[in-house]
Structures are given as structure tokens and as C-alpha cells.
Amino acid sequence: MVVIEDVLQIHEGPGMGRVRTLLLLYLCHTCRALEITVPPSRVGIVGTDAVLPCTFKVDNYPISRQFLAIFWHFEENVIARYDSKTQWSTSRFTIDEQAVMQGNASLTIHNVTVTDKGKYKCMVIYSPNTQEKEIQLNILAVPVVRIQKKAVQRDVTNILQCSITNFFPNDMKVIWLKNGLVLSGSGTQDDKRNADKTFTRNSTINVIFLKEDGNPEITCQVENEYLQHPIHDSYIVQYGAAPKVNIKASRTPDGNDQIYMCEATNYFPEAMTMHWMLDGKRIDSPRQSNNEYFNKEICYRIHLDGNNLPSQISCEVQHETLYSPLMATQEVKVEHECKRSCHFGLFGVLLGLLVAVSLALWYFMKRVFQPFQVSHIHRMPTADNRVTMFCMASKWPKEMQVTWKILGKDGQNLMSDPTQARDEEEVLIKGSDYIVETDRSHSDKLHHAISTLSFTPVISKHKDMEVFCTFHCDRRNSEWRPVMGEIEKSAFKDGKEAKLLCRISGYFPNAVDMKWLRREAESQEWFDVSTSDKYKIPVMEATQQEDKTFTYTACLYLTVSAATDSGAELTCWVRHPSLKTPLERSSGELVVIGENEQLLNSSMYMFRIHSVYQVVMATYS
């Protein structure tokens, strides 16, 4: 110091006092110590904000902004910085500027994700000193635990299932408990990675419940070092019975269709789903039953005349007592009716009556409502004592309702179910074991239905009974009422043949009753026109349009006589099931052109043609 003072004294001149002051400040500043503190690790919860602590101390306060700089690194990349000139950060990584001047350089990570896991480095520069330290950020995604609360069976192996969704890290531990005690047993764990890098796990365990177990509480519990407490889900065990599934087949009398019935029996609780599969492919939406029945049937029809017949038909049943669906499969075979045999046992005579009843219905519907089709009543063969009957209807534009009725030999009404409401699947006749089920489908904008009636017969009650299956179809709907156009007619010339056309369109079903009526001049009496020497009424076929309605054109030819037809009137008369009253369209009074008038009109026509020809020739000459 003496040497320095001597030098300063020797060379001191203007401005040297200022240099001395700065030098002393620098020497003093170099003595200031810098110390930063960070914890070794922190846990961030997915979807929340996480703070990575980083604090620093200097010997002398207040902290001078001009000597301070802060940098945060993640995987060698700068993600946030602060100094006296700039503060740089992103929407997810921020440093609190006000806290910095208090010695707090902590980093806030907003909306934490799994990808934020890793080592972070906090670097503080307080010129000329620099320090940096690392902190590990671990990630926790809190799982959602759901145990499948389903009925189980006694004395058989049950597979219990628990889903743990959206968790991280992957080393979550799943523990099964019965009444609070660890449940031992084999099982599986299936982990899947989600798009957000979290995991989903399906955990199963095989358990046999004995009668002495009562109704224990089963718990699925998840543990992890980052969880403050275990997460679990529990339920009290209830018992049920798994369904038995069977497919039965029956050929319709005409041999054109095969009816398959899938029957699930002796199960509880009641909730169950059934659907059909053709060659392994589902053909309809699942059918659900939520009622008090413990037997369920669904039907399906296969038309045997088609070119693309499936080789197999399967019925798949899902019930809560089952870990995986039950499936029954049957080969689809086309065989002649003579190769099949039916055994009706005690009710052979009864079924003869059933066929007779349905025959009358079928022929009536076939005649009146083509192409609407109604089948006979058939019996489905069963192995037990129950009787199952079914009837079918198809090709109706609206959904049909079905009712069944049973009359005893004395005419007593043994069973009658109310008309089913829309979307209603089943009707149970209280106080009996009659079960009615209806399966509905649609194709090409037309609806079809198969309805079954099941019951256990009693000889004293059901002998010589009659069964009625009725399809309720809304016929009186203006959408399918026929529309009649004006009558188209040619000229009525004495001694010549005239033609009248009457067009009816937009009706369904194809059941129009049409005729021609005639009224003589100055008469009020109408009479039917029939084929004769004077009249020809050709048979015309109705044509079906794209919207499934029908169009029909009635035609009438008559040999005109001026003496008898002048002033007469012809009417097209149409009746249809959708109409309360018939439709009528008149030709108006007939005006017959005589022979002299025909010649005069012909001469005038020739004169006009000749005149036009002369004018045209004069123009081009």
C-alpha cells in the first residue's frame, strides 16, 4: 500500500481522485460472496403449476440490478432468463421480477405435463461471481380408479376388473383387498400409453367366493411414493347367475325362410345385452333387456332364396356375471323340408288349430295388402316344457305393433296383452308366465317384425285353445293415400274406338279396388261397366316407385255411338284401405262427333296444309 500511495502521489493529477475511488469500489466488490440454494427435487402434478425453488444470497444488500443475471436451463436449453437489460421467458416458464430483488430466482412451470420431467439448472451471476445448481422435477399424474361393480358367482372362478386411468409414473402399485385384507390370487395387468404420455392400466384378479364369505367388500387400491395417500374404489359383492345360451332354428312352411331364435335363460340380475352375428360380423345393434325377466329371446330371419347366404349365424350374450361374452353358433344349412321332422307331442292337435287360424289371416293379408306379408303362427322346438310360438310380418312402411291372444275351448280369454307402445320390447302378463317379445328391423325403408309368445302349458287349461297373433298397422295415413289425376280421353268419333285413362299414384299398400261407372244422358242412375262388345277393360299391373308407393293406370276402350253415347258420362271409381270414402273422377258429358262433321273437319285440315305448302313454295321460288 505504501508503494501504491507513493505512485499515486507521484503521478496524481487532474481526475486521479476519481480513478482511486473506482478502484477501491472494485476491490471492495470482489470481496462480496454469492451463495445459491435449491432442493434436490420437486414433484409436479399434471395440469397444475409447479415452482422450482432457487434462492441466492450476497454479502451486502440491497442487491444491485446492474451486476445481476439469472438463467434457467432444461436439457441444456435456456428456457428463462433475467438481467438488468432484458427479461426473457415463455408462457409456460416464468421468473418473478420483483422476487428476484429479494434473492428469489425460482422458476414457475405452468400447466405441468409429463414431458416436463427432468433436470433443471438454476444459474445466478452476481458479477464477477457465478454459481449454478441442479434440481430434479418428478411428475405425478393422479390416477382415476374404478372397480367394475358387477355381480359374481359362487363356487366358480370370477374375474374381477379394475381400471386405473391417466396416471404417471408407471410404477403405480395395484393392491386388491377383501374386507381390508390383501387378496391373494392370480391376475393380469395390461398397461397402455396414452397420447399425453400418461398410462392406463386394466388390472384383473381371479377370485372364488364361497358361501361362508357372505357379501365381502372388495377394494382396488393404488399406491405410489408421490401420492400423499392411497387412492381406491370399493363395492359390496352381490351374487348372480350366468345365462345359458342356446340357438334354435325353424323353417317356415313354404320353405323360403329360416327363423333362428337365441334364448338366454336362468340368469340374474336382469340387465343383459344380446346381438346377432353373421359369419362373425355384427348385423344389428345390441338388444338390451332391463326388466324383471330371467329369460330372454331374440329372433332373426334368413331368406333362403338369396345368393349370399352366410355359412354361420351366432348369438352373442353379455351379462355382468361374465368376464367375456358367451357365444352360441349354428351352421346355416339349406335342406329340403322333407328331410326335416317335427314332434309336437301333447300339443299336436293344438298346433293344427293354430295353423288354421293364421292361414285365414295370411291369405286375407296377402290378397289385400301386397307386398305386405304376414306368416302363419309357428312353434319353435324347445327342449324343456315351455312352448314358444312366433309369427312374422314384413314390408310395411311404418313400425308395426303386435298383440297376442289366447282363447280357451270355452271361449274364455286366457291371455291378452295390451298393444305395445313404440320402442317397447316386452310385455309380461301379470299373474302368469306368458312372455311376449317382439324383434323389429327395417330395410329399404320398410319395416319387419318377428314376435314370440312363450309359456308353460297346462293340459287342463290350454287343451284345444286358440291363439291369435295380430299385427296393428296404421293404414289411414295421408302419406300413402292414392292421388287421382284427371281422366285423359281421346276424341269420341261416331263408329270409332275411344280411349280413357285414369291414373292413380302415391298409394300403399298395393290394394286398390278400381272400376268404371256409367250414367246415361238425362239419368241419375249409375251402373258398373264390364267387358262386352262395346267395352274393353285391359288388366293393368301396378308399378312400384322408388319411395315404395304404387302407381296404377286404369284403361277403358269403348266403341262410340252417337245415338247412345252423346250426353252420357263415365266415372273412374277407386277404393283403398287408407280412404274413408272412395275417390271418383268424371269424364264429363261425352260429346260425339258425327260422320259429316268428321269429313268437314278433315277437309278444313287438308285446306290448311295445302295453303301452307303454297306459301312455303312461293317463298323459295
Q: Indicate the CATH architecture of the largest domain.
A: Sandwich
Query: Distance N terminus to C terminus?
Result: 140 Å
Domains counted in the coordinates: how many? 6
The dominant shape is elongated
What is the third-level CATH name, the topology of the largest domain?
Immunoglobulin-like
CATH class of the largest domain: Mainly Beta
Low-confidence stretches: 1-13, 15-31, 289-293, 336-370, 419-431, 599-621
Give me the oligomer status: single chain
Strand order of the largest sheet: 2-11-10-5-6-7
Hey, roughly how much beta strand do the residues contain? 35-45%
| Gyration radius over CA | 47 Å
Main β-sheet: number of strands, strand sense, barrel status? 6 strands, mixed
- Please report the total strand number as a whole number: 48
Helix content: 10-25%
Structural class: mainly beta
Structure notes:
With 621 residues, the chain is mainly beta. It has 6 domains: 31 residues, no CATH class; 104 residues, Immunoglobulins (Immunoglobulin-like, Sandwich), CATH 2.60.40; 93 residues, Immunoglobulin-like; 96 residues, Immunoglobulins (Immunoglobulin-like); 128 residues, Immunoglobulin-like (Sandwich); 117 residues, Sandwich (Immunoglobulin-like). It is 13% helix and 44% strand. Strands 2-11-10-5-6-7 form a 6-stranded mixed β-sheet, with no helix packed on it. Strands 28, 29, 30, 33, 34 and 35 form a 6-stranded antiparallel β-sheet that branches. Strands 37, 38, 40, 43, 44 and 45 form a 6-stranded antiparallel β-sheet that branches. A hairpin with a 7-residue loop joins strand 46 and strand 47. The termini are far apart. InterPro entries: Ig-like_dom, Ig-like_dom_sf, Ig-like_fold, Ig_C1-set, Ig_sub, Ig_V-set, Immune_Resp_Modulators. Keywords: Immunoglobulin domain, Membrane, Signal, Transmembrane, Transmembrane helix. Pfam families: C1-set, V-set. This is Ig-like domain-containing protein.
